[in-house]
Design brief:
Layout lengths: L15 H14 L20 H8 L3 H8 L8 H10 L4 H10 L16 H9 L5 E4 L5 E4 L4 H4 L12 H6 L11 H20 L4 H13 L1 H7 L10 E7 L3 E12 L4 E7 L5 H10 L13
Antiparallel strand pairs: 1-2, 1-5, 3-4, 4-5
Helix pairs in contact: 2-3, 2-4, 4-5, 10-11
C-alpha cells in the first residue's frame, strides 16, 4: 500500500491514500439538492458523481478522478480550498483535508456573509414563521417578509446598521427593556456569542472594531464583556406586546447553519395558539408597512 509522499515537516506530508478515501466518503454523503443540483435520473449509487464534484470545484474531471485514485500531482492549497467548498466541509473537516493533502490549514477566515441559497429558499418558504439569518458577528444577513414586523424593514438600512449588538446597546439606560430579565438574559447570550466569535476570528477587523466601539460607547456592554462568558445561544420563550398583533408568546429557536458559522433564528408559535393565529394574520395581506423596532 502506498504511504505518504515525501515531504519536509510532518505537516507537509501528503497522504495520498487517506486523501483519496476522505474525498470519496465526503462525496458519497452529499446529495445533488445539497449543492443546488437537480436530482435528475435515478442514480446507481448515493452521493455526488465525480464529475459533479469536479465541476463544483472548478477542476478537470480527470484531475479529480486521479485524486480519488491516490495518484496524480500534489494538490495545491487553492485546489484543497476549492474541494472543501465543493464538498461543503465543516471547519474541522477542512483542516483535516489540508493536513492529509500535505498543507498546513489556513487561518480561519472572517465570518461568512454568504447565505446559502437553500437557506434563502427556506426563509421564503416559512410564510407563517418569522425567520432571519445572523452572522457570527451579529449582523442580520437575510430575512423573510414576516420577520420585518419584528426587526423592521432592513432593506432600508445600510449593512453596517443591521447589527444586533449595536441595536441592543443603543437603548437608553432607562429603557424598560433593561428591566425585563428575559431580555437581559438574551442580550447576555448575544454578548457571549460575540466573545466566542472574537476568539474564533482573531484577525477579523469588523469584530474587533465592533467590540472596541461598544466598549467605548456602552458601560453596560463593557460590564457584560468583562464577565468573559462564552456560550452558545439556546432556545428561549419570548413574550412581546406587538403594536399590530397584541401580546404574543413564542419560542425563539436558534439553528446553526453548517459551514458558514451563521444562525437561523425563528419565532415558533405553539400550534393552535393565539400567537400562531396572529402570525398568520400578519402574513396574510401584502404588507403596507413594517414595524421599525427591534424585538429579539
Amino acid at each position: 500500500m502506498a504511504g505518504p509522499a515525501t515531504g519536509g515537516k510532518l505537516g507537509d506530508m501528503l497522504n495520498r491514500d487517506e486523501l483519496a478515501a476522505f474525498l470519496r466518503t465526503r462525496r458519497d454523503r452529499l446529495r445533488p439538492h445539497d449543492v443546488g443540483l437537480p436530482g435528475g435520473q435515478r442514480r446507481r449509487t448515493p452521493g455526488l458523481r465525480r464529475q459533479e464534484v469536479a465541476e463544483l470545484a472548478g477542476l478537470s474531471v480527470d484531475y479529480y478522478i486521479r485524486l480519488e485514485q491516490a495518484r496524480g500531482p500534489r494538490p495545491s492549497r487553492q485546489v484543497l480550498a476549492a474541494l472543501s467548498r465543493a464538498l461543503m466541509l465543516t471547519t474541522d473537516e477542512r483542516e483535516y483535508l489540508f493536513r492529509v493533502g500535505g498543507e498546513e490549514p489556513s487561518p480561519a477566515p472572517g465570518p461568512s456573509r454568504d447565505v446559502p441559497q437553500g437557506i434563502r429558499y427556506l426563509l421564503d418558504a416559512l410564510t407563517s414563521v418569522p425567520a432571519y439569518v445572523v452572522s457570527a458577528s451579529c449582523d442580520i444577513l437575510a430575512w423573510n417578509q414576516l420577520a420585518t414586523y419584528f426587526v423592521g424593514d432592513l432593506a432600508q438600512f445600510p449593512d453596517g446598521d443591521r447589527n444586533m449588538v449595536r441595536w441592543m446597546f443603543a437603548r437608553p439606560a432607562a429603557d424598560s427593556y433593561w428591566d425585563d430579565e428575559h431580555a437581559v438574559a438574551f442580550t447576555r447570550s448575544v454578548v457571549a456569542e460575540l466573545r466566542a466569535a472574537y476568539a474564533r476570528y482573531p484577525g477579523d477587523r469588523s469584530i474587533a472594531a465592533l467590540v472596541t466601539e461598544q466598549l467605548a460607547l456602552s458601560p453596560r456592554f463593557a460590564a457584560m464583556w468583562a464577565e468573559h462568558e462564552v456560550t452558545a445561544r439556546h432556545p428561549a420563550v419570548k413574550r412581546v406586546d406587538h403594536p399590530l398583533a397584541g401580546p404574543l408568546e413564542f419560542e425563539c429557536q436558534v439553528l446553526h447553519i453548517a459551514d458558514t458559522d451563521q444562525r437561523l433564528i425563528t419565532y415558533v408559535a405553539a400550534p393552535g395558539s393565539p400567537t400562531e393565529a396572529a402570525f398568520r394574520r400578519l402574513a396574510a395581506p401584502a404588507p403596507q408597512g413594517t414595524v421599525a423596532s427591534w424585538e429579539s
